[in-house]
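Lab meeting, item 3. Inverse folding demo.
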């Protein structure tokens, strides 16, 4: 099969490369000519505009969008709606809010353009390990796209599937990322406690390797933690500032809207916010209050 990959960031580039290696034809578009040139070295056919990318495809045309969520995705899909025809297919494989995906499907439907939202997980390892694909849209369209999904997934019959109607794919991916927040926070806290027990002189890399086999906490995230600890057990070269890409927030919002308690995911998100507060006025106020009511010692700022 053939498709156009719109957005050649690291994941978009890797996905297009995996498709090419799997025998598919991929046309890649990026705003930066140097990125397009890099893609061409990997066997991806380059395009320097949306018009050129779409023009290089035969009908029915398949366009996979991998650009940042929000306005960038809105603008791209709206532009594509004026370039594509009835029977063509747009797949949003980025991290869009599921509500945006429902809206995009409704916008394209009157023109007869099919839409699929595909929550995609795998990060930089997807090129070799395959991607987990959570797909929303019409069953018949998902089946039509089977050769592409089978190539991108870890295997033809695993790691991918249509999970529901428009928006369902990105909804499932949103919750997936919320769970990821909680798991990462638990590992981070656990290793921090181990590090703090200085009298035992624990080798955290050794501990992580022990846990990788037979332990109930063994996982890919633990494997990644082990890699990080092997490279630098102190992690001193890393600034303690943790970003969030949006899905964790959206998961917390949904838990509130649905009256479903999600304290672990919510606290994991809040801890990411805390990591960005160099001033940390909250902690300063807590110290001041303890001093005021109990005379507890406070440490003076340098």
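The presenter then showed the designed sequence:
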């Amino acid at each position: 099969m053939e498709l156009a990959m719109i957005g050649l960031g690291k994941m978009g580039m890797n996905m297009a490369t995996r498709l090419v290696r799997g025998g598919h034809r991929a046309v890649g578009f990026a705003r930066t000519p140097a990125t397009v040139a890099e893609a061409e070295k990997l066997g991806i056919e380059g395009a320097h505009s949306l018009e050129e990318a779409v023009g290089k495809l035969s009908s029915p045309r398949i366009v996979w969008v991998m650009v940042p969520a929000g306005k960038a995705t809105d603008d791209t899909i709206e532009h594509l709606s004026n370039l594509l025809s009835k029977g063509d297919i747009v797949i949003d494989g980025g991290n869009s809010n599921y509500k945006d995906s429902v809206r995009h499907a409704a916008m394209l439907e009157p023109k007869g353009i099919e839409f699929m939202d595909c929550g995609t997980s795998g990060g930089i390892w997807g090129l070799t390990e395959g991607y987990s694909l959570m797909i929303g849209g019409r069953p018949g369209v998902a089946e039509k796209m089977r050769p592409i999904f089978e190539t991108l997934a870890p295997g033809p019959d695993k790691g991918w599937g249509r999970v529901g109607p428009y928006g369902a794919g990105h909804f499932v991916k949103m919750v997936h990322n919320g769970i990821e927040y909680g798991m990462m926070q638990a590992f981070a806290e656990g290793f921090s406690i181990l590090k703090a027990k200085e009298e035992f002189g624990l080798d955290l890399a050794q501990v992580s390797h022990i846990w990788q086999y037979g332990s109930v906490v063994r996982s890919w995230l633990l494997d990644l933690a082990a890699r990080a600890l092997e490279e630098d057990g102190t992690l001193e070269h890393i600034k303690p500032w943790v970003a969030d890409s949006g899905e964790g927030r959206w998961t917390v919002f949904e838990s509130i809207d649905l009256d479903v308690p999600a304290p672990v995911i919510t606290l994991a998100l809040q801890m990411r916010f805390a990591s960005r507060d160099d001033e940390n006025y909250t902690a300063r106020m807590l110290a001041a209050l303890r001093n005021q009511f109990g005379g507890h010692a406070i440490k003076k700022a340098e």
